[in-house]
Amino acid sequence: MVSSPHEAMHRIFQQDPGLFPRAVKALGVSFSEPISVSPFPTDLTEIRPLERRVDTLLRLDTAADGSFLLAVEAQRAQDHGKPASWAYYMAYLYAKYKMPAVLLVVCRDRHTATWATQQFSIGPPQWPTLTLRPLVLGPDTVPVIDTPEAAAKDIPLAVLSSTLHSRAPEAGAILKSLAAALKGLQADDEDTASIYIELTEQGLDETPAADLWRHLMAVDLSIFQSQTAQALRAEGLSEALLVVLSGRGIDISDQARDRITSCDDHDTLTAWLTRAATATTTAELFADVDE
Length: 291
Description:
By secondary structure, the protein is of the alpha/beta class. It has helices spanning 4-15, 19-23, 82-97, 110-117, 148-153, 155-164, 171-188, 190-204, 208-218, 227-247, 254-262, 266-275, 282-285, 287-290, and strands spanning 34-39, 56-62, 66-75, 101-107, 120-122, 130-132, 135-137.
């Protein structure tokens, strides 16, 4: 099953392909900024029943480097079968599209990044026929973006930094800086800010930093509209509803409590909370729905 961090580590390059040349500068590799970008199909399956699918595939057109394909793979653990698949991807892309291809591997785990950085050769030791050289971004090569100014300067890089450093001591400073930058971006471009909020949320997965991110998103729920923010808003309404019912001395059965706490519809919870001011039983609370 594809995980949320897996999605975040490659989708960030779909959102901002210009992140690629900026991020790999730390690797000592120079690519010019793309002047146009075209998403390509990620399905590399042949006619025979064998599915091969790259995570993200983009065509980058640049003024200085010409055009090339960027294949982004999110790798969470060492997989000794992967180099053969990656070599296949590169050969297939070159054969199909007749243009150079670059493989970028993004790793949240430091040991996985070290493993992926090595060159993989196909052929006998005295004459390797094919050598695979991935570019690898990991915790040691993506900088810690821990000031609001740095985060605002390059929000996509800050999102990537939050994912790859989600278990590091600096995670809190990164997320606070990113939240401030996203709040500023939201004022100008709410849709783009929402995308970066979701990608950050996915990238943090179930790490302790995810709890901090939920707290930061809960500070101003009128601004942040991510799934986390919506869930927190619903949770707050359900808790308020239970407090009102209890304060008015209305008996709350286990079934009614479960119904209230499991509801994630904002409008429904708001209607129930309004009705709780005059209802004498939970049956009255749910009357219009149950009729």
